[in-house]
Specification:
The chain is of the alpha/beta class. It contains 15 helices and 9 strands.
């Protein structure tokens, strides 16, 4: 189906205005196949439709935003962020509140937007395995991933705390619906860290980006890794011998935020309104297997039933997963991150 777009951002019934003629914004994301997908599905067509000039950069996450805001040298207008990191950054005062009179989220899935960040895609943190090592019968739970006797081989694991503690607790026998309750104490966090310590002799790499963990599987450098489902699908399409399961995966979403003091805040707000529309979001699964946050994207005819069945936000797949708790991250991420980094330097 060929897409057509208006030449300007239309004013909506919610009262939004058009992006100023000749506006320029700088958007930062994480690079690799993920940013390539965002660029093709969202940034480039929205730029063409609105006439706004979009400069794209890659960045290192909210630490970069913190540095810019603290020094008063903010150059970024929109940043891609994990939902938990955005929740914490908003609480720290690093982000502008979003104007939902401008950004229409009336068709968004519940809880896929917040005061400071609007959902851009739904993804899953999964365990993936090298099919050359294990065939199709790889791990089917986090307990399997941590079981080096049943599944001998090298592992890669995330080098930061987001999405790292929950799998360890599930591997240690904590039911999905009790994971965040257990993690809501330093003792519970330490329990998760102890489980990772058990696995650590078999962890050869602590990865720091989606591009890295995908490359690890493409190169066959490790036998298993944690990571993001869409990155593995793209790696498999490029010939990587990799498979994964949604069972016990972490259901999460990425979002877009505006740094505090962004030089082009108004234009950025309007651009977020544009890329939140279903006619952009329904193209994202063509480039990476992440689900749209706007429910209306499933009704445009662009996403087939077969494609929807492989997206993290499909009802069948979502039912197998643990939804990430933004409340937990807002309250505990700072403490947990310190404890995690201490564990990594032991």
């Amino acid at each position: 189906m060929r897409k057509t777009f208006s030449l300007t951002v239309a004013a909506t019934l919610l009262g939004s205005a058009t992006i100023a003629l000749g506006a320029e914004i700088t958007v930062a994301s994480w690079g690799g196949s993920y940013q390539d997908a965002q660029s093709k599905a969202l940034f480039e067509p929205a730029a063409a439709a609105t006439g706004v000039t979009v400069k794209q950069e890659t960045y290192g996450g909210m630490a970069d935003v913190r540095l810019q805001v603290s020094t008063g040298q903010v150059t970024l207008d929109i940043v891609a962020s994990g939902s938990g990191s955005a929740a914490r950054a908003g609480a720290e005062g690093l982000l502008e509140p979003l104007d939902y009179n401008v950004i229409d989220v009336s068709n968004f899935y519940p809880s896929l937007y917040s005061e400071f960040c609007v959902g851009g895609d739904v993804f899953s943190t999964v365990y993936a395995w090298n099919t050359a090592t294990y065939g199709a019968d790889g791990p089917q739970s986090w307990a399997d991933f941590f079981d080096v006797e049943k599944f001998p081989g090298s592992r890669a694991y995330r080098g930061s705390v987001a999405g790292a503690l929950e799998p360890a607790l599930m591997a240690d026998g904590v039911p999905l619906d009790q994971v965040y309750e257990v993690l809501s104490s330093e003792e519970g966090i330490e329990r998760a860290l102890n489980k990772i310590r058990e696995l650590r002799p078999n962890i050869s790499v602590f990865w720091s980006s989606g591009a890295q963990h995908a490359q690890l599987m493409k190169d066959g450098e490790v036998d298993m890794t944690t990571g993001w489902n869409g990155r593995f699908d793209n790696a498999a399409a490029d010939g990587a011998k990799v498979a994964y399961s949604f069972n016990q995966a972490l259901l999460d979403y990425d979002c877009f935020a505006i740094p505090k003091g962004a030089p082009n805040k108004d234009a950025a707000m309007q651009f977020l309104a544009e890329i939140s529309k279903p006619e952009y979001q329904d193209d994202l699964p063509k480039y990476i297997t992440y689900g749209p946050t706007n429910k209306a994207a499933y009704s445009t005819g662009e996403i087939s039933a077969d494609v929807a069945a492989n997206l993290p936000s499909s009802p069948e797949n979502a039912a197998l997963q643990l939804p990430v708790s933004l409340e937990w991250y807002a309250e505990w991420e700072t403490i947990a991150a310190e404890m995690y980094q201490e564990m990594l330097t032991e």
